[in-house]
Amino acid sequence: MYISDGLIERIIREDVPCLDLSTALLDMGGYPGMISFHAREEAVVAGVEEVLHLFDKFSLRVVVSCRSGQAVAPEEVFLQAFGRAADLHAVWKVAANVLEHCSGIATRTRRLVRAAQRVNPRITVLTTRKLFPGTKEMAVRAVAAGGGWPHRLGLSETILIFKQHLCFLGGVEGLAGVLDAVRARACEKKIIVEVEDADEAARLCRAGVDGLQFDKVPARQLKDIVGDLRRIAPAVTLLAAGGIDQENVAEYAGTGVDALVTSWVYFGRPVDMGVRITGV
Q1: Which residue in 14, 74, 126, 216 has the most C-beta neighbors within 10 A?
Q2: How far from chain centre, in Å, is Cα 49?
Q3: Distance separating alpha carbons of residues 166 and 172, to the nearest angstrom
Q4: How far is CA 265 from each of CA 146, 165, 211, 276, rounded to the nearest angstrom?
Q5: Quick one: which of 99, 112, 73, 80 has its CA closest to 244?
Q6: Chain segment 26-36, per-residue pLDDT in tens
Q7: What is the pLDDT of residue 254?
Q8: What dihedral angle (degrees, nearest 10) is formed by the CA atoms of 83, 84, 87, 92?
Q9: What 3-state class would DSSP assign to 221?
Q10: What DSSP letter does each residue of 72-86 carry, written as one string?
Q11: Which SS3 state, helix, strand or coil, does residue 20 take?
């Protein structure tokens, strides 16, 4: 996946706006040294490619590196590089923060995907765009490293119609009246509508929408709805969203939907990483 120079410059500038005052005052910046990273727990590592770009900016020589998406054991060194002490200290915290937070997302994603696919091997875990602004590039790559995919990257990408749209159109009936026109203007796109109950879902299926996203419908109830909708429109794409997490993912995976949409993977503790810097 593409990593922009702008992203790397921005995260460096946040931590080193001018200089590393401590290292400069100690007059130790030119000494050679080594930096290495390990997880203190089992984890799926992510953010590695971003950190390698960061290392390249400071001319560090990488001698050990894994790929994002690799599972690592506690104390296993997965990234190691040599360089000047000033450069090692400049990248230290930025690299640790990227690896810890991205690996947290990837680890939770992998956990969710495996739990869901034990129930339904064909189901997909999709992640929302409900993340902290400015972190999307790294978060999306971390999700992919864990085996998930983004639900939608932004408003320009997909047609997803909410009740906040329907209130301007006259509800479900109003939407049904403009579906053909919408489809003609964006013939290569699926039209997905978020719903909250079975009646709305059935009416929209009969109107010819391509997919439905169920928001916060209990799993037991959703399973019955999915069965009914498959009889009305066998090819309709069905998504479950709203509150899906590690505790209920297996139950939702058993409802018969095609994909699970979640924000849960973004919100949790980072992976506990250890960093060692030594002179050589």
Answers
A1: 126
A2: 15
A3: 7
A4: 10, 27, 24, 28
A5: 112
A6: 999 999 999 99
A7: 98
A8: 70
A9: helix
A10: E-TT-EEEEEEEEHH
A11: coil
- Two structure tokens written together for 111: 């956990």
d(CA 104, CA 46): 8
**241 CB-contact burial (10 Å; exposed 0-12 / middle 13-18 / buried 19+):** buried
**Tell me: the pLDDT tens digits for 6-58?**
999 999 999 999 999 999 999 999 999 999 999 999 999 999 999 999 999 99
What structural domains and CATH numbers belong to the chain?
Answer: 5-111+269-279 (3.90.1170.20), 112-266 (3.20.20.70)
Taking the CB of residue 271, how many other CB atoms lie within 10 A of it?
A: 25
Tokens of 151: 């639900």
As a whole number of Å, the end-to-end CA separation of the chain is 34
How long is the chain? Answer: 280
Compute the distance between CA of residue 205 and CA of residue 207 in angstroms, rounded to an integer.
Answer: 5
Single out the residue of 116, 51, 53 nearest to residue 78, CA to CA: 51
CB 143 within 8 A of CB 165: no
Q: What pLDDT is stored for residue 1 in this prediction?
A: 75
Strands 43-44, 61-65: pairing is: unpaired
Contact 46, 145 (CB under 8 A): yes
Q: What is the pLDDT of residues 211-251, one digit of tens each?
A: 999 999 999 999 999 999 999 999 999 999 999 999 999 99
Encoding tokens for residue 147?
């085996």
Residue 21 tokens, joined? 């005052």
